[in-house]
Specification:
The structure holds 2 protein chains of 2 kinds. Chain A is of the alpha/beta class. Chain A is built from 13 helices and 4 strands. Chain A has helices at about 10-25, 30-50, 70-75, 85-95, 125-145, 170-200, 200-205, 215-245, 250-280, 280-300, 315-320, 320-330, 345-365; strands at about 55-60, 80-85, 100-110, 115-120. In chain A, β3 (about 100-110) and β4 (about 115-120) form a beta hairpin. Chain A is elongated and about 115 Å long. Chain B has helices at about 45-50, 70-80, 95-105, 110-115, 135-145, 165-180, 190-195, 215-225, 235-245, and strands spanning about 5-15, 15-30, 30-35, 60-65, 65, 80, 150-155, 180-185, 200-205, 205-210. In chain B, the strands form 2 sheets. Chain B has a 6-stranded mixed beta sheet, sandwiched between helices. Classes of the chains: A alpha/beta, B alpha/beta. At the A-B interface, α1 and α7 of A face α2 and α3 of B.
Chain lengths: ~375, ~250
């Protein structure tokens, strides 16, 4: 019997494979599109949504009296955008939904001055109609008190504002985009990538070398991890630089976000391996991948909060793996919470991942 | 000459179906051994068991006196493998693939030197999918030599190649064999088996029907009184084709 070698070395193989698997990803147009282009486009759109202000647009008919205290007071409101145009034009705009309301003021007597305010709102948006009506009520009441010489009204409202931070849509959307990128990279890349490698006998050729199957899978996962960290960095830096995404504790929060992302990617990779092991054909994988990812993109608070969902659906949505990640990220960003508060959420995610790795190990078919 | 491969009573079953049904043969060090047979004869299964890629149901396979079932990692170190389809990672360049395989075999190589051996040095920065069929097979053969194996296994290496590329590949196989590497290959082509292989095993339905040298096969057949209708042809169509188009390799 010949001298038997020791177990093959795996460390060098692991790092060299990881390097080339990563290079291969960077040369793949799909990685670029899904991993970098889509998040950048989404973030930019959400960033711009967050910046839009002046939710109320009010039109004044050109022929009406514009020099009176009511109109002047309305114009001074910061939340109102005003425009002056012929009445027919304003009505057209309101039917199209471009205008929240039309206000005209008629002076009914000169001395003492008396005015009648006409407010036209659309039945299409009762919320804006109510906003405008209450705004006009407020201004009219103030003017009436002033005209009556009341400086000390019986009832006053003391308004107090907490020094809260204004939460913009980008602050909500950016964590969702991180989750979106991580789940896409982990699942789409792994499932379709591994199925191709199986079908084209690439894996089989590798199994003919002294490198272990697990080393090959780990190198695959490692290369996706590097790619995902780059994606998260891009999303975060773009969010911070271009749209002032809020990090409550600066770079500490930044590092915490990276740690959460790495844990999430490793858990999501479990889903990828499980599905890639189960099926051997891209056509069969397509519906399966969508079945796993689409509900999560829609229900996990990626684009809108879980609290907007019907009550019966919320408990289910809260237990989706992506929900745990999204909630953990928002805990330390928008909610300004402590890193330790994310631990229960991350445990939920880790349990999901562990279940998937166990299932993958039990069901994985190499060919 | 010593046996570098010894296969004894090898059986591979899938349920009730015997893909390989109790075959025994040995391959001598330094020879080119061909396995001939129609599709589904069990050639690839036999090859993949020798390559440690498939477990056997029963029997024994020794490569360089090492049991493939007991010590697969030591067998993997000593063999080179070419699969039926050219199986390489996409979006990785030729030199990079060789570098990666060197790491997987835990050896040090000069990728450019390996490419020169198979006349692909000008394709160093290409991807496998950009190569012609013949170039892909040559690259595939280069990848089998990375770990300086004692035996290489080639599964239908010339299927789908044009006549020039086939002849070129034969020359390459002979060159590797002259350097001391034992070669086990499967093929559908009788002329390839006759010209290239020192010994042949003819397989069908998971059984080996006959083992021997191509010459001996023909002699045995003639001894039975077999006579082929003799046509006085000094050349065949392949000769015409090669005469018209030349023997040089055509590749982009």
């Amino acid at each position: 019997m010949k001298k038997i070698y020791r177990r093959p070395h795996q460390i060098r193989a692991f790092f060299v494979m990881m390097k080339y698997f990563f290079l291969a990803q960077t040369r793949n147009p799909a990685t670029f599109a899904f991993g970098f282009l889509f998040p950048v486009v989404f973030i930019s759109i959400f960033g711009l949504i967050g910046n839009s202000t002046a939710p109320l647009t009010i039109g004044f008919p050109a022929t009406s009296n514009l020099n009176n205290p009511i109109i002047t007071a309305i114009k001074q409101q910061s939340i109102v955008k005003t425009q002056v145009a012929p009445e027919t034009q304003l009505e057209k705009d309101m039917k199209k939904g471009n205008l929240s309301g039309i206000i005209s003021v008629k002076q009914t007597s000169q001395n003492p001055p008396r005015y009648q305010v006409n407010v036209i709102t659309s039945t299409a948006s009762p919320q804006t109609a109510a906003d405008i009506t209450s705004l006009v009520n407020l201004i009219v009441d103030q003017e009436n008190l002033r005209a009556a010489g009341v400086t000390d009204p019986t009832i006053t409202i003391k308004k107090q504002q907490l020094a809260g931070r204004q939460i913009r849509y980008i602050d909500f959307a950016l964590p969702g985009q991180m989750g979106f990128a991580l789940l896409s990279t982990a699942i789409f890349g792994t499932v379709f990538g591994l199925i191709y490698l199986k079908k084209a006998l690439v894996l089989k050729r590798m199994f003919a070398t002294p490198t272990r199957a697990i080393t090959i899978l780990l190198a695959q996962g490692g290369s996706r991890l590097i790619m995902a960290v780059l994606q998260v960095l891009l999303i975060l830096i773009l969010g911070i630089v271009a749209f002032k995404f809020y990090l409550p504790h600066g770079w500490i929060t930044f590092v915490e976000l990276l740690i959460l992302s790495i844990i999430a990617l490793v858990a999501f990779l479990g889903f990828g391996y499980f599905m890639a092991g189960l099926v051997n054909d891209e056509n069969a994988a397509g519906p399966m991948v969508n079945l796993i990812t689409l509900p999560q993109f829609l229900l996990s608070g990626t684009f809108f909060p879980i609290t907007d969902l019907p009550n019966w659906l919320q408990p289910i949505a809260n237990f989706l793996p992506l929900s745990f990640f999204n909630a953990a990220v928002r805990k330390i960003t928008t909610e300004g919470g402590d890193f330790t508060q994310t631990i229960p959420l991350m445990i939920g995610l880790i349990i999901w991942g562990a279940v998937m790795y166990i299932l993958a190990a039990k069901t994985f078919k190499w060919e | 000459m010593t046996d570098i491969i010894s296969v004894k009573n090898l059986i591979k079953q899938y349920g009730n179906f015997s893909a390989v049904n109790d075959i025994s043969f040995s391959v001598k060090e330094g020879e080119i051994f061909g396995i001939l047979g129609p599709n589904g004869a069990g050639k690839t299964t036999t090859l993949e068991i020798m390559e440690t890629l498939k477990p056997l149901t029963s029997g024994e396979v020794l490569i360089d006196n090492i049991d493939v079932t007991k010590h697969p990692w030591d067998v993997k170190r000593r063999i080179g493998v070419q699969l039926q389809s050219t199986a390489f990672y996409p979006e990785v360049k030729l030199t990079e693939l060789l570098d990666m395989f060197a790491a997987m075999y835990d050896v040090t190589i000069d990728p450019m030197e390996m490419l020169r051996e198979v006349e692909l040095e000008d394709k160093a920065k290409s991807y496998v999918k950009q190569l012609s069929g013949g170039q892909q097979q040559r690259f595939s053969i280069a990848s089998t030599l990375i770990n300086q194996p004692k035996v290489i296994f080639l599964d239908e290496p010339t299927t789908g190649l044009d006549p020039q590329a086939r002849i070129h590949l034969w020359e390459m196989v002979r060159k590797i064999n002259k350097a001391g590497v034992t070669i086990v290959m499967t093929t559908h082509y009788m002329d390839e088996a006759e010209q290239l292989c020192d010994r042949l095993a003819i397989m069908d339905h998971g059984k080996i029907l006959k083992i021997g040298t191509p010459k001996a096969f023909i002699q045995d057949l003639l001894k039975t009184g077999f006579k082929k209708e003799i046509k006085q042809e000094q050349a065949n169509l392949e000769d015409v084709f090669l005469n018209l188009t030349g023997r040089q390799l055509r590749e982009g």
